[in-house]
């Protein structure tokens, strides 16, 4: 049985299919906007899911009809003291505290990308700021046709610092598009997101999008977890390195991974026309 993931305020962690976990942001009355505590919660959730042997795929979504997430809860952040730091007058010391705080938040969101298991994000309604930060960390991005995206930070006088400006240029979309949406903070639609390649599928509504994510997750969960996790690892490594580096990395990785019993089980299942069952990882 999967581990107990109760106790994380504003998050529901459920298991809709064997080896598939769904993480749902659950603060719909506030459009699923994030407080500082919520950042730490999502980081902890994904750290645990990454090593949970009963989980092979994760779906990330938002509760409610209006938003995947409206991003940072700006009012809560301004009241928290980490932005203003009014008790410190020395510029260097104030900058150091802010830098450390930003690093903490970055690490929480990066936990989604570092998760060993594939993560499928389902966006709907308002998907602003942090919504794109988190989605950029995910392996497969799909959305409902009512989704409205925005890289929102310049609208509140900031350069986005949680991941969008670093990951969006590596997401397969054009640099012109990245600068367009990041500099204007304009909304862009699900159809535009599909056109530029930010998402790989647009569905009629949230229910249909979540249903598609579950189909994909269930399909992936039936594959060898050794093969799936190694594939994600190599793709992410290759994204950030040269082709030669990627070839060397997978060569070294597979010198151990191809020795798994999963290869034999997969081949035998193919010959016998049966469905293989793989041990937990």
From TrEMBL:
Signal peptide segment: none
InterPro entries associated with the record: ClpP/crotonase-like_dom_sf, Ech1-like, Enoyl-CoA_hydra/iso, Enoyl-CoA_hydra_C
A Pfam family hit: ECH_1
Subcellular location(s) per record: Peroxisome
Any single biological process term in GO: fatty acid metabolic process
Alphabetized UniProt keyword annotations: Acetylation, Fatty acid metabolism, Isomerase, Lipid metabolism, Peroxisome, Virulence
First-listed, main subcellular location of the protein, grouped into a coarse class: other
Gene Ontology cellular-component annotations: mitochondrion; peroxisome
Pathway terms, separated by semicolons: Lipid metabolism; fatty acid beta-oxidation
Similarity-based family: Belongs to the enoyl-CoA hydratase/isomerase family.
Name of the protein described by the UniProt record: Enoyl-CoA hydratase
Lineage: Eukaryota, Fungi, Dikarya, Ascomycota, Pezizomycotina
């Amino acid at each position: 049985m999967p581990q107990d993931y109760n106790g994380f305020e504003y998050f529901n962690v459920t298991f809709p299919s064997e080896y598939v976990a769904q993480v749902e942001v659950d603060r719909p009355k506030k459009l699923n906007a994030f407080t500082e505590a919520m950042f730490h919660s999502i980081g902890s959730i994904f750290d645990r899911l990454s090593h949970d042997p009963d989980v092979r795929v994760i779906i990330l979504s938002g509760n409610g009809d209006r938003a995947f997430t409206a991003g940072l809860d700006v009012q809560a952040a301004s009241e928290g003291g980490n932005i203003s730091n009014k008790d410190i007058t020395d510029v260097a010391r104030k900058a150091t505290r802010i830098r450390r705080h930003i690093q903490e938040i970055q690490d929480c969101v990066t936990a989604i990308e570092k998760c060993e298991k594939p993560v499928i994000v389902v966006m709907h309604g308002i998907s602003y700021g942090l919504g794109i930060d988190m989605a950029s960390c995910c392996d497969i991005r799909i959305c409902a046709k009512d989704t409205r995206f925005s890289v929102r930070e310049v609208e509140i006088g900031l350069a986005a610092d949680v991941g969008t400006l670093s990951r969006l240029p590596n997401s397969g979309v054009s640099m012109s598009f990245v600068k367009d949406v990041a500099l204007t903070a304009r909304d862009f639609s699900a159809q535009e997101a599909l056109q530029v390649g930010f998402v790989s599928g647009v569905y009629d509504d949230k229910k249909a999008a979540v249903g598609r994510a579950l189909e994909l997750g269930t399909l992936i969960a039936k594959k060898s977890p050794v093969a799936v996790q190694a594939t994600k690892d190599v793709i992410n490594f290759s994204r950030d390195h040269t082709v030669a580096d990627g070839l060397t990395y997978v060569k070294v990785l597979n010198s151990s991974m191809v020795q798994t019993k999963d290869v034999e089980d997969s081949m035998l299942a193919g010959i016998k026309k049966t469905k293989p069952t793989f041990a937990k990882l």
